[in-house]
Design goal:
Chain B: Belongs to the nitrite and sulfite reductase 4Fe-4S domain family. Chain B: This is FAD/NAD(P)-binding oxidoreductase. Chain B: One of its GO terms (molecular function) is iron-sulfur cluster binding. The complex is a heterodimer of chains A (684) and B (565). In chain A, helix 8 packs across helix 10 and helix 8 crosses helix 12. Chain A has a seven-stranded mixed sheet with strand order 4-3-17-16-15-5-6, with helices on one face. A six-stranded mixed sheet of chain A has the order 22-24-23-26-21-25. Chain A has 23 helices and 26 strands. With 684 residues, chain A is α/β, with parallel strands linked by helices. Chain A has three domains: 239 residues, Rossmann fold; 194 residues, Dimethylsulfoxide Reductase, domain 2, CATH 3.40.228.10; 114 residues, Beta Barrel (Barwin-like endoglucanases), CATH 2.40.40.20. Chain B has a five-stranded parallel sheet with strand order 3-2-1-7-19. A five-stranded parallel sheet of chain B has the order 9-16-10-11-12. Chain B has 16 helices and 27 strands. In chain B, 27% of the residues lie in helices and 22% in strands. Chain B is globular, with a radius of gyration of 30 Å. Classes of the chains: A alpha/beta (684), B alpha/beta (565). Chains A and B meet through helix 10, helix 11, helix 12 and helix 23 of A and helix 11 of B.
Chain lengths: 684, 565
């Protein structure tokens, strides 16, 4: 998008216009059109705030605030070790901030305890992509490539609400009758399959993996596999074929609730003429078997011979503003810039050389987000936490436990521009710049590095996170340097990423400002890589790896009485924890409160009418909202948006169980009971 | 093989008799412990092929699938892991006192734990002309080759579709455009008839009752199936009690199938007769060793023989039933069952004949033996055992969970039939709630039986989505919506779109990107915005992906017809 108006004025003089760009073609959704309102929102924090003994906050000078933070961090490190300080980052931070935060944690704090909210978002798809292709870039092709496809299989993504302009890229497939949407809800995206646009498969929650095994089974059984491709470009096919042999269509129907005829139709369609793409979203990834499910989607794509061609492929759609770049440059607990592994001696040596330090000072791998949050206040765990671009008391699973963890900390420092729900727990709040007030880069879902340019001056008293990290690093006596200028930080990031998987070494702000379409890997002198894998995949042998996966047996509780499966997700009007969108009146007025989506027949069975107050509860907590009756739901599940706080927070109910490979929590399959509020629960 | 670390205990010796899909699954469950040296596993399989998936045998036989699609296990990998797999050999004797199994080769296999996964063989009906092919129920065959036949093999042109050789014969027949006669219209017979017809074969399905799949369908469901099968090109021959097989002899004197003769005198000629008359568990070896057998080898909910704690059975040969005679103390090996105990005929139930329960039994028993072997091997081995195995056994329930009544689904393209539980209740039955829907002309029929809102039995014919949902509801014991008719909408043309389907209703969304409704656009048109662009400026409708601009124009035209002209 583009901001028009006085270039250094305040928002009152700023208007938003769509920018002609391949991803959105000049289109914006409601969230984009109203984004300028955030710049001047009423509770914008414009001074550092320090918690007082009486529990209130008082304004403080930057020097006072930073001195206090640095002293307390140094003290904690001295008394309890470096790992007593933790850092929690965010997928909305610019590449420069994400990079600098990772470096700050490792060098200035010396801690291994850093992870970020992308763990709740992209981690399963990332793990599956790395395992299969040796590399994780959301779309290994340019988004416009989708336009000419005749079949697109979208699994667990409601892109029509979460990223509406994207649906223009589905138009070609809809025209050809080939948009296939897999979602337990008849979502806005699923409705795009109406009127001959394609097929909506509505499996029961938690059975996506079996569905994918079944589709792969049919493709192989009906002789639709690309045997030539499998021989020349992949390894591991035999084991995958054998593993899918046990999932014949009728068995898959009995598990998923998707009829055999639909399964066959979809399998045949995917193997048919014209380009085919398979895209996954959080709906299939945010599960305890999310990595295996994404792997099963990749296996299907590989059996069909899709990845690494100019007209077909597999991709995953990122959820956050910088969901791609945010997971490449060191915010992850096991990662160094350039998507390098922190445990790899060569990677450590390279990055240490760029940083001008001995590799030995870089800590080893830390722990992923849920485990990190679980360590808060525990003996030997994290005692001080810095939070950047994240609202964990709304977005993390089992927020009651997270809230409890935060209260046990010696020190909580929150960098934010609003008084978010997490900021309310802070000891120190440091106000930072937001999107239109800063320079930087973001990397899109297709691995394209985009410039963010400053349009207006930030309010006086607000500072960039790069400046804050610099100031703290100096006070902590950190080795290396911590540049304040985004362009300078980017240049260092480029050097640190050189030779890594996500290689930005040929890029600079100056080059990006020429308007080039820069897809990584982008080495000096190259033109970047819009399409990956055309000749080889990123594993040393150049082959893509099929990995046999099997569903782990879930002991499913009988869904009787008022027991139902809870799904969580997004609404059109809101974004993530709602910390921003709930502050935009137009968005908030459209969706002022969370509502529980429930099928009318299920509601009637439970004595619930439209707008009735309901309690959604399990052993972890209770959510109080009003009901919204919609036949878009299956009979056996209910839906809550996760944008809301307090009693409406969906993550009061989700559990801390995680995927063993990606450490992704289970967000999409929670057992709850639903009752009309005011009705006494009869037990026994 | 690498040298095993020194351990205090010897490996637990497990012998598995039978290497079908259930046996293979059991082997997979033990692989880690075999590799780790805590279990020594020997497998005896009568067929010479590696284990394969019998469920898909008909698909393969009619040429709709390839041989490699029947593989569900990696036998080579099991051998590499150290499993001794002896194919083409038969267990012919069991000495429970010495704990040895005797093979047809003469070898003796000592065991600590013996597992039967011998499966079931096809029944050969009592038809004149096939007498010598029927085997006596309790006779232990002297060799692998003769395991499933009587004194003579079946004549040429007569098969029971049970193994790869049968499948090969059927495949040849279909390729040569032979006419098939399928005797028996159970689920397997009908599946085969439909699959063969789909491949272009001429098929007659012969059965003695009124409807096909009589054990799994009520009259309504059966009728719908029969007409669907006829539409698919299968000649259905109900009320036909087969009595004899007419054979013709070629010039070498070799007998070949010619026709099936029914009690009413009707002769049904063909090139290949496929017997689909049910199966019986292979229990003769167990019976000869004085183990209780009924419809299968009788085992408790820990899959242990009633008579011997070291002997187990899984899959189609296992008849699971808790002991009912009050004789809690288990006899030691060699001790005969007391004569006072309930005779076998009074033991209820039977093996389900389905793969799902068989696999669950294999998983459970393997995990249970892993736990036992790991404990026996002592803490050193336990620490060295794979974490996964340890985790599995820690979470292992102490007895195998009881199976729900089975759901039976017909595997046939374009014919959607599924049923489960007890659907026999009458529509006006007071004890149950029964819901019925029938539309024979369009080939759909549904019957639901519920108790307290929970589905206890159902038949669904010709309703693919409903059938699939009912299966889920039945298996999860889920509660049906109070409005049963909402279920029928699943296969309706409007799918779940009963509410808000009018695209011009005021609350209907036009622009998804910006959440703009028809009502909002009508409002601004009334205020004077008469072009798509103006409406876009006023409401942001059409300023996202732009896909709705056509509809916005329509709404403007409807709301302001004069202005639009």
């Amino acid at each position: 998008m583009t901001l028009a108006g006085a270039p250094t004025g305040r928002p009152a003089s700023v208007t938003i216009e769509g920018r002609m760009f391949p991803t959105n073609r000049g289109g914006l959704c409601k969230k984009g059109w109203t984004a300028a309102e955030l710049l001047d929102a009423g509770d914008r924090i414009v001074h550092p705030l320090l918690r007082q003994p009486d529990g209130t906050f008082a304004e403080a000078s930057w020097t006072e605030a930073l001195d206090q933070v640095a002293d307390r961090l140094a003290d904690s490190r001295r008394r309890f070790g470096a790992d007593s300080v933790g850092v929690f980052g965010g997928g909305g931070l610019t590449n420069e901030k994400a990079y600098q935060l990772g470096k700050f944690a490792r060098l200035a704090l010396g801690t291994s305890r850093i992870d970020y909210n992308g763990r709740f978002c992209m981690s399963s798809a990332a793990a599956a992509g790395n395992r299969a292709f040796g590399l994780d870039r959301g779309l290994p092709f340019a988004v416009e490539d989708l336009d000419s496809a005749s079949t697109i299989l979208v699994l667990g993504s409601n892109v029509a609400e979460t990223m509406p302009p994207f649906i223009a890229h589905l138009a070609g497939a809809r025209q050809a009758g080939g948009l296939i949407v897999v979602d337990p809800r008849r979502s806005a995206t699923a409705r795009l399959t109406d009127d001959g646009g394609g097929i909506h498969l509505q499996p029961t929650p938690g059975t996506d993996l079996v569905l994918l095994l079944g589709l792969t089974h049919i493709v192989i059984s009906e002789g639709l596999a690309d045997e030539q491709y499998l021989r020349s470009r992949t390894s591991g096919y035999d084991a995958v074929r054998t593993s899918t042999n046990a999932w014949w269509p009728e068995r898959v129907q009995a598990t998923t609730g998707v009829p055999v005829a639909q399964l066959r139709e979809v399998a045949r369609r995917l193997a048919g003429a014209g380009g085919s793409y398979i895209l996954t979203g959080r709906g299939v990834e945010q599960h305890v078997d999310g990595t295996d499910t994404a792997t099963a989607a990749i296996n299907l794509a590989l059996v069909l011979g899709l990845p690494g061609s100019s007209h077909s492929g597999y991709g995953t759609m990122t959820g956050q503003g910088n969901g791609q770049g945010g997971r490449e440059h060191g915010q992850k607990c096991d990662q160094l810039p350039g998507y390098r592994k922190i445990s790899d001696p060569d990677a450590r040596a390279h990055v240490a050389a760029v940083w001008g330090v001995d590799p030995a000072v870089i800590p080893g791998p830390g722990v992923p987000a849920v485990e990190l949050l679980g360590e808060l206040g525990q003996p030997g765990g994290v005692r001080c936490l810095l939070v950047h671009g994240s609202n964990v008391v709304v977005s993390a699973p089992d927020v009651t436990a997270v809230r409890a963890g935060l209260t046990t900390l010696d020190l909580l420092v929150v960098c934010d521009f609003f008084f978010s729900e997490t900021a309310r727990f802070a000891d120190v709040i440091l106000p930072v710049t937001q999107w239109a007030e800063e320079e930087g880069t973001m990397t899109s879902l297709e691995g394209r590095v985009l410039r963010r340019r400053q349009a207006i001056e930030p309010p006086p008293g607000v500072r960039s996170e790069l400046w804050i990290l610099h100031e703290l690093a100096v006070r902590l006596g950190a080795p290396s340097t911590f540049a304040v200028s985004p362009a300078e930080v980017f240049d260092e990031l480029a050097r640190a990423s050189a030779g890594g998987i996500a290689d930005y070494s040929g890029l600079s702000h100056t080059l990006l400002d020429t308007g080039i379409a820069a897809y990584w890997p982008f080495t000096p002198g190259s033109a970047g890589t819009p399409r990956l894998f055309l000749k080889t995949f990123a594993h040393p042998d150049g082959l893509a790896r099929l990995v046999a996966v099997r569903p782990r047996r879930a002991v499913s509780e009988p869904l009787v009485g008022n027991t139902l499966t809870l799904l969580t997700g997004r609404l059109l009007e809101h974004y993530q924890s709602g910390a921003q969108t709930r502050r935009v009146p137009e968005l908030q007025d459209a969706r002022p409160a969370a509502r529980l989506q429930i099928h009318p027949a299920t509601a009637s069975r439970l004595g619930i009418a439209e707008n009735d107050a309901v309690l959604v509860s399990n052993t972890r907590g209770t959510v109080r909202v009003n009901a919204e009756l919609t036949s878009a739901m299956r009979h056996d599940c209910v839906f809550l948006p996760f944008h809301y706080a307090g009693d409406e927070c969906a993550n009061l109910l989700t559990e801390r169980a995680v995927d063993p490979i990606s450490a992704m929590p289970e967000f999409k399959r929670t057992i709850v009971s639903v009752t009309r509020a005011g009705v006494l629960e009869v037990t026994g | 093989m690498t040298a095993q670390p020194l351990r205090s205990a010897q490996p637990l010796r497990v012998v598995l008799v039978g290497y079908g899909p259930v046996g293979a699954r059991f082997v997979e469950g033990l692989l880690d412990t075999v590799e780790g040296g805590t279990v020594a596993l020997t497998v005896v399989g009568a067929e010479t092929d590696d284990a394969y998936n019998r469920v898909l045998l008909a698909e393969f036989a009619v040429g709709r699938s390839t041989r490699d699609r029947l593989e569900t296990t990696d036998t080579a990998a099991a051998r590499v892991a150290g499993v001794s797999i002896r194919l083409g050999e038969a267990a012919v004797g069991l000495d429970r006192v010495r704990q040895t199994v005797r093979l047809d080769t003469g070898d003796l296999l000592p065991y600590d734990r013996l597992v039967f996964a011998t499966g079931a063989r096809a029944n050969i009906p009592t038809l004149e002309g096939l007498e010598r092919s029927r085997r006596s129920r309790l006779e232990v065959s002297p060799s692998a080759e003769r395991m499933d036949r009587g004194t003579a093999p079946l004549p040429d042109g007569v098969i029971a579709l049970r193994d790869l050789r049968d499948a090969a014969a059927l495949r040849t027949a279909i390729e040569s455009r032979a006419r098939l006669v399928v005797l028996g219209a159970g689920v397997l017979g009908i599946e085969l008839a439909l699959a063969a017809a789909e491949q272009g074969a001429e098929v007659v399905a012969v059965y003695h009752g009124d409807i096909p799949m009589a054990r799994n369908l009520d009259t309504g469901g059966g009728r719908v199936l029969a007409s669907a099968a006829r539409r698919a090109g299968v000649v259905m021959a109900p009320h036909s009690r087969a009595e004899s097989v007419l054979l013709r002899h070629d010039n070498t004197g070799r007998a070949h199938f010619d026709a099936l003769v029914c009690a009413d005198g009707k002769q049904i000629g063909g090139d290949l007769l496929v017997l689909s008359c049910g199966v019986s568990a292979r229990t003769e070896l167990a019976a000869a060793a004085q183990l209780t057998v009924s419809a299968g080898i009788v085992v408790d909910s820990m899959l242990r023989s009633w008579d011997d704690v070291n002997v187990f059975a899984i899959g189609d040969c296992a008849h699971i039933v808790e002991r009912t005679d009050g004789d809690a103390a288990r006899r030691g090996p060699g001790e005969r069952p007391s004569s006072e105990r309930a005779p076998a005929a009074r033991i209820f139930g039977a093996p389900s004949g389905l793969i799902g329960p068989g696999w669950r039994q294999a998983d459970w028993l393997a995990a249970s033996l892993v736990r036992e072997a790991t404990t026996l091997a002592g803490p050193a081995a336990a620490a060295g055992a794979a974490d996964a195995a340890a985790a599995t056994s820690a979470a292992l329930p102490s007895v195998l969970a009881a199976e729900r009544p089975s759901v039976v689904m017909l595997k046939a393209e374009g014919v959607d039939i599924v049923s489960g539980g007890d659907y026999s209740a009458d529509l006006w039955d007071d004890a149950h709630e029964v819901t019925q829907w029938a539309d024979p002309a369009r080939g759909s029929y549904v019957k639901l039986v519920t108790e307290g809102g929970v589905l206890t039995g159902f038949v669904s014919a010709g309703c693919p989505r409903l059938g699939a949902e009912l299966t889920l509801l039945f298996e999860s014991r889920g509660e049906l919506p109070a409005d049963r008719s909402s279920l029928l909408h699943l296969d309706g043309t409007g799918a779940a779109e009963s509410v808000g389907s009018d695209p011009l209703a005021p609350h209907a969304t036009v622009c998804w990107c910006n959440g703009v409704t028809v009502g909002r656009i009508t409002e601004v048109v009334a205020e004077g915005q008469r072009t798509v662009e103006c409406v876009g400026k006023a409401t942001r409708a059409g300023t996202g992906c732009g896909g709705c601009k056509g509809r916005i124009a329509e709404i403007i035209a409807l709301a302001a017809p004069v202005a639009a002209i």
